[in-house]
Amino acid sequence: MKLIRCHIENFGKLSDFTYDFSEGCNTICEENGWGKSTLASFLRVMLYGFRNEGKRDPLENERKRYAPWQKGVYGGELQFESDGKVYSVRRIFGNKAAEDEFQLTDARTHLPSSDFSQKLGEELFQIDGGSFERTIFISQNDCETFVTDGINAKIGNLAENTDDINNFETADKRLNDLLNSMSPSRKTGLLRQRKDRITELKTQIRNGQEIQNTMESIDARKKAAIEEREKLSAELTELQERQKKLGIYKDQQAKKEKYLDLRAKMAERQQTLKEAENYFNGVIPKGEELREKTAVCNQGISVRKAMEIYCLTEKEQAQLKDNFPMADNVRLEEKYAEAQELESLESATRKNALSGEESRRLEELSGYFAEGMPQEAEIDSVKNAWTNRNEGKSLLQAKEIQRKTLQSIQAQEDARCLREQEEAGKRKKILLLFGILLSLGGFVVILLGQGLIGGVLIVLGIAAVAAALLFTAGRSKVQTGENTELSYLEQEMEELEAQVRIEEGQIEDFCTRWGLREGLELTSWLVELQNKRRDYEALLERQKQDGSDEKIARIAALQKDLQQFFAEYGEVPETQNYLAALHELAGKCRQRQLLQEKQKKYLQQKQKYEAIEEQVKDYLMSLQLIPEEHPEEQLAELESHRKDYEKELQELWRSEQEIRAFEVKEDIPALLALKAPEGEESLESLADEMQVLSERMEECFQTIDSYQKQLSDLQESWDNVENMQEELKALQEKTEEGFKQYELLGMTKNLLEQAKSSFTAKYTEPVMQGFRKYYRILTGTECENYQMDANTRLQVIEGNMPRDIGYLSLGNRDLIGICMRLALVEAMYEEQKPFLILDDPFVNLDENRTKGAMRFLTEIAKEYQVIYFTCHGSRE
Amino acid sequence: MKIIHCADIHLDSRMSANLTREKARERRTELLTTFRKMVEYGAAHEVDAILIAGDLFDTKNVSATARNVVKDLIVGHPGIEFYYLQGNHDEGSFTGGLSQIPENLHLFDSKWTSFPLGKKVCITGVELNPENSGSVYNTLSLDADLVNIVVLHGQESEYSAKDKAEVIHLTALKNKGIDYLALGHIHGYKKERLDGRGVYCYPGCLEGRGFDECGEHGFVELSVDEAAGTVESRFVPFASRNLYTIPVDITGCVSTMEILERMKEETDAGNYPEKSLVKYELTGKVDVESEKETDFLLHQFSSRFYFVKIKDSSKYLVDYASFAKDVSLKGEFIRTVMGREDLSEEDKAAVIHYGLQALAGEEILDA
Q1: Intervals of CATH 3.40.50.300 along chain A
Q2: A635 DSSP 8-state letter
């Protein structure tokens, strides 16, 4: 491959610059500042692009550094040959890579070509930019070289295998980094950290073992406390047993005491009963009988009290002894009726008797009404007639005024009608005449042949005649109406006057009959007449009621009969108040009757009492007792003693029953043989002991609980220890695995390096041969002190020791570098040789070496197209 | 008559091996709740007795909550008789803290103790210890006319082992008239014939606690026909959550996404409930150049289940033949590694994987 032509539009200071390359060596010898390095850079940039685009420094950032000084299009064109084909690549650079333009064309056809992409350098030379600058491109002051992965890959024909030797350095670095990160010796190393953690965990776990000991110790104490609690529990059980036994003894003892007490009480009851029995004289009254006799005795007391009540006083006895005649009730009732009738008759007589004034009045009225007496209705009728007559008179006066008014209106109306009739007669005649004429006219017109007009005229004529006739009729009708009203009024007045006359006739007859005095007002007279009539009737009635003969006779008969009745008792009443006298007599009779009854009852009670007294005495005698003055007290005392006796008897029976029940229920012989348990303990002392034990047990519970809590806390701590143990175990496993990985990784690194050395060693010798060849050309001497290690690193033997060429002088380093580059290029490109770009690489060589360099140029130009830049003719 | 046989409930178990502290606490609560629900199940199904064949508690130091809940459940269900045989974990942990043993709680000790239940059932048990483990078998005497349920806690064994308290000598228990040997200690359900008359049964734990206790857990419900003298038993799954280990063969997978697909297939096929605790175990061989990221895989399933864990047990497969004549650094590297006779095949595979991952710019370590 070779360069044919380049054209720079603008690149750094170069502008519109064209250069045609030839075969062999193309020497561009220009002064400093001409732009040689810029041109060399242009060639490199056209192949590999800019370096250090990310740098800010314009000197390091090539895109900025080579920006056109004079502005214009930034870029250019490069024509080259590869595999017999000529291509033209054109690149225009923008401010950034994304703005760059790239165009590859076939130089012969001028058609775009896709044989290479923008990565033109890599594809053309099969090495990266770095490797290009270490081999094909030798820049000023950078002649030294070293073997990159790209160079190795190219030499080993592995340039296209991306995961192989070209990645060795990266892989080696990553392995190294990984080993460092895992390092067991570095502080930051994972394995070192794990080891430290393991040590820490072991220490903590070792310390934690003490927890286990403590737990065992506490557990032992807890067990001892549990044993103690169980022991106390057993003691408590025993005490409870003893308490139970003692309780049973106490119960039995109480029962024994109760039994003995029962027996003692029974004996006491028997004694009391005997004493109660002694009161009676061998005969114990039966309760029912005694109660019966007591009741009888009590009845006797009641009877005695009744006797006392019915016993007559001396005065009463004297009363009973006189011969007072007793009146029976029927007769007394009869006399009562008579006395009442008498009183009633006498009272009526007293009430109806007329006074002197009344008698005179009666006499006067009898004279007044000697001819008869007007009826009440008659007087009322005259009163009404008088009222009607007065009203009729008043109405007549009013109607008279109305008649006069109507007569006046009638006179006026008649005069007006007369005038109107005259005028109306005239109009009627005219209208009648007009109608007749119109009708006649109509006939004439009909006759003349105008039927319709003639008909109309006849109709109008008839209408006019009819109107004249109707007008006359209306006027006559009005006149008739007014006359009727007046005649009605006059007729009414006539009827009213006739009625008034009738009324006046009736009044006049009445006044004439009953003598109305002249000058007396009619109405007042009628009232006076009415009063007189009523007085007369009342007086007549009273006179009629007062003092008939039958009545007087009856009064006398009754008085006589009653006087005879009272005469029987020698007590005729002076005041003739028979009713009161009868009351008094009836009282006396009743009093006597009561005394008799009292006397009778007394005798009855006395008999009864004597019978009772006898019965009680007999009873007491039957009880061997001497009856005393008050047998009721004797009987009460007897009852009291009998009750006491009965009660005692009952108590004794109850005691006996109780004892019998007790004897059935309990084992009496065993109770009587009961002995106190040994020892002097009491239930109280046992309870105290149990209390103490319970308290101790409670303490034990608390102690156990406390141990339990401690154990729980310790268990938590122990759980942590166990967690640490688990962590330790897991960590140890991981660490062991990590160490294994670390070891294998170390081995991987070594074996990979070993493989790399082994792999590169295969082309070390050909490279070394090339080096020797170019060294000889350049220096004219054989290369003896240099050797190449397996990593293709050149070393110089100084003092029998291989040393890095960095120890050599700058000139020697450049010389060796140039030789090494050529040796590598030779090894890399066995078939198609690349062009070489040498940017004044011999500047540091001395004069002799410079001559050798010229030979070197001549020699390599035989095989390679060389683009050589220099600024000095000596190196041209 | 109905009886519940349970064992190895391990209340107060820490369960922090896999779980976070919060989830471990939640699981402890769930364990206690499941025990409560089991007792309530018993009450609802008119169960006469509950046999607890050891390890009711996980530690000697029982928490106050667990102790009170268990005590209150026993006292609160006077219609159920509780027969509690202590195991190797809970020796004295519960009863030592009680001031009074509830009337319906029956305890065993180091000598055979029998409790009659109903008219024809006899429950007999002994707590094994180094002193009595050799002699208990000779002293067991049962009435053949009764339905005999024997309770023990220990590891089943056909042969007796000297001084090993927790070994149950099954041979010595044959032909003793046992109808049902209620055992505890093994954490998975197991029921086998003991002899011509009876069976022995481990109900397993009530809730799985770790991935060594995968699958369904619960208790055994016995139906005793007293008239016929027969015992029928059935396992009742009762755990609130189950644990599952899902093996996923990732052979042939070359990327994390392919492994994810394989895991999804296995998960869907198993139809595991969301509340489960799941451990994926990646097995098989994957190409040494394959890529797998277990953190990513874990994240994909973490929201699907209550708890997820991934164990990568897969191996790398190196196709040596393809690199035998490869002129490249890789080929050279693989040949160099394979030439190291001091390395095991597994280590070689690992080294090759690391090297290739490094060259490819991928994560060198899987997780």
Answers
A1: 1-125
A2: H
Question: Which chain A residue's Cα is nearest to B365?
Answer: A741
**Residue B68 touches chain A, beta carbons under 8 Å:** no
- Contact between B182 and B150 (Cβ < 8 Å): yes
Beta strand pairing call for B218-225 and B230-237: antiparallel
Strand B147-153's sheet: what is its strand order? B113-117, B121-125, B147-153, B180-184, B199-202, B190-193
- Residues of chain A within CATH 1.10.287 domain(s) are 379-545
Cα A120-A121-A124 angle, rounded to 5 deg: 80
A147 touches chain B (CB under 8 A): no
Q: Cβ A744–B359 below 8 Å, yes or no?
A: no
From A162's Cα to the closest Cα of chain B, the distance in A is 8
Q: To which CATH superfamily is domain A1-125 assigned?
A: P-loop containing nucleotide triphosphate hydrolases (3.40.50.300)
> Which amino acid is residue B59, in one-letter code?
T
Any B CB within 8 A of A717 CB: no
Give domain limits for chain B: 2-237, 243-360
Q: Does domain A379-545 have CATH number 1.25.40?
A: no
Shortest CA distance from A167: residue in chain B? B359
Query: Cβ contacts (< 8 Å) between B364 and chain A: which residues?
Result: 174-175, 178, 745
Is the confidence metric ipTM above 0.85 for this complex?
no
B361 in reach of chain A (CB within 8 A): yes
Pairs of residues, one from chain A and one from chain B, whose beta carbons lie less than 8 Å apart = 106
Q: What is the DSSP letter of B297?
A: H
Q: What does the angle CA B77 – CA B82 – CA B86 come to, to the nearest 5 degrees?
A: 140
Sequential pLDDT tens for chain B (367 residues): 999 999 999 998 888 778 888 899 999 999 999 999 999 999 999 999 999 999 999 887 788 889 899 999 999 999 999 999 988 777 666 777 777 889 999 999 889 999 999 989 999 999 998 888 888 999 999 999 999 999 999 998 865 554 454 789 899 999 999 999 999 999 999 999 999 999 999 999 999 999 989 989 999 999 999 999 999 999 999 999 999 999 999 999 989 999 999 999 999 998 899 999 999 999 998 888 788 888 999 999 999 999 999 999 888 888 777 777 777 888 888 889 988 889 998 899 889 989 988 888 888 886 5
**What CATH number should be reported for the domain whose range is B2-237?**
3.60.21.10
